[in-house]
Every structure is written in C-alpha cells, then in structure tokens.
Amino acid sequence: MKLTSIIVEDEETSREILKNYLKKYCPNVDLVGEAENVEEALILIRNNNLDLVFLDVEMPYGNAFDLLDKVGDINFETVFVTAYNHYAMDALNAHASYYLMKPISIDELIKAVDYVAKIRTKENALQNQVLMPKTNVVNGKITIPQQNGFEVINTADILYCKADDNYTEIYLNTNKKKLVSKTLKYFEDILKDTSFARVHKSYLVNVNEVVKYLKGKGGSVVLSNGKEIMVSASKKSDLLSYFK
Predict the structure, then answer these.
(1) What's the pLDDT tens digit per position in 166-187?
(2) pLDDT (tens digit, 9 = 90+) per residue, 104-156?
(3) CA–CA dist 204, 184 (Å, integer)
(4) Which residues, 6 or more positions from 193, have their beta carbon under 8 angstroms from its beta carbon?
(5) What domains lie within the chain, and their CATH numbers?
(6) pLDDT digits (tens, 9 = 90+) for 24-67
C-alpha cells in the first residue's frame, strides 16, 4: 500500500540521503513534505492525513518528543532516525514503530517501511468491521497459587493480566482481581496457545474480549468491560494478526 509520509530532519544532507533511499528502495512511500524544525513539522502534520513520519530526535527549538506532545492524538506511525542510541528507550515509550540509526542501513529502512505498511494495511482492512478473532473461544483452566493451596480459574473468565513488578494482577469478567506471585511472562508462556496477546510490556489481553481497536498514539484496544489498554507499536502487528 501507499504510505503518505513526511521527513522531519534539520540537516539538509540527511534529508536528501533519506529521500533518495526511499525513492530507490521504498517506492510505496509517498513523500508529501519536509520539515527542519518542530513548527514546520506541526503544520505538515495538521494539513496532511499521514501514515508515516520519519523523525529526527534533535532539532532546533525542540526535539522529537516535544513535537509528539504538541501533536496530541497521533494517528500515524513514527520511525525515529537518529545518530544517538541513548534515545531508544524514550522512542519506545513514545510508541515508535521503528528506530533507525544513522548512517541509515538500507536493509533496516526497508524493514521499517514494510513493518509500517503491514500495520496500516491490516488496520484499514479491519476498519468498520466486526472483529472476529481467528482463534476459538478460550477453553481450559489455570491454577494460581495461594498461601494454603491453589485456586482454579477458567481462562475464558480472564479479561486481561497486568504486570506489577514480579507479580501479576489478573482481572476477571466477574469484576474481581487476583494478585499472583508470578511474572506476566509466566502467564504469557502458559497461555501462548490460546487467544491471549501481549499488547504491551505490562499487559496481556484476551482477544476474545476486545470490542474495539483505536488508532492513535501507538493504538489501543477497548475490552468488553470498557477498559482501554494501550498497544505498543512493536506489538501492533502481532495483535492485529489475531483478527480476520
């Protein structure tokens, strides 16, 4: 699919290199503008319906994170392009889809564009559709430890699990919550063959309970109880693959 895109980069040489790479190796990217600072970028973002923004971190009069804060509700994917690897965690927290280091690797650039194209294609296909999980209704039971033994829970009753350091909070469709002395990774592993998707470093959700998917800053899902949970950009593709 065509990806409507802009480049936000204060160095002209870097902009030219990226433009040339995109033209030669990523013909599905439709560049509609360039910006060399936050204010120029804001104008482009507000005047275009964008799929993808290539974003340098350090710019005059503000940085990439200042820009994203000013944009507010973001409905495009972001690929960070920077010479500094110490921004990686901040980029992750800003729900970046990809993190490219300068000098740009052509192979990594192609991977970044392909990843975004895959997400946008799936999002568009699911737009205004009744979400039907590919997996069957969750069956089975799991046991959770207690001081005097263990409790048995139907997996179908679990809405989502939330990490709490080395503990996990399990939220049930009965409005009850269980605190278990196991990590979220533990539950991700034992539920991997069922319809549970890790959508965030802190959340594991029962996809059969997803009633709405929202585009935005990283995207989010709304569960049957009204709970909205943020989806990490790196987890979007995995989550969307559960639906047909």
Answers:
(1) 999 999 999 999 999 999 999 9
(2) 999 999 999 999 998 888 887 766 555 556 555 556 888 888 778 888 989 88
(3) 8
(4) none
(5) 3-126 (3.40.50.2300), 141-240 (2.40.50.1020)
(6) 999 999 999 999 999 999 999 999 999 999 998 888 777 888 88
* pLDDT attached to residue 11: 92
pTM above 0.85, yes or no: no
Tracing tokens 């360039």 back to the chain, one arrives at: 34
CA distance 22 to 30: 9
- Residue 227: both structure tokens together: 């709970």
In order, the DSSP letters of 158-183 are: EEEEEEETTEEEEEETTS-EEEESS-
Long-range contacts at 27-31 (CB < 8 A, ≥ 24 apart): 28/1, 28/2, 28/3, 28/113, 28/117, 29/2, 29/3, 29/5, 29/113, 30/2, 30/3, 30/4, 30/5, 31/5, 31/6, 31/7
> What's the maximum distance between 2 C-alpha atoms anywhere in the chain?
67
> Are the C-beta atoms of residues 124 and 1 closer than 8 Å to each other?
yes
pLDDT higher than threshold 80 for residue 216: no
Taking a C-beta distance cutoff of 8 angstroms, is the pair 113, 3 a contact?
A: yes
Tell me which H or E stretch contains 59: strand 58-59
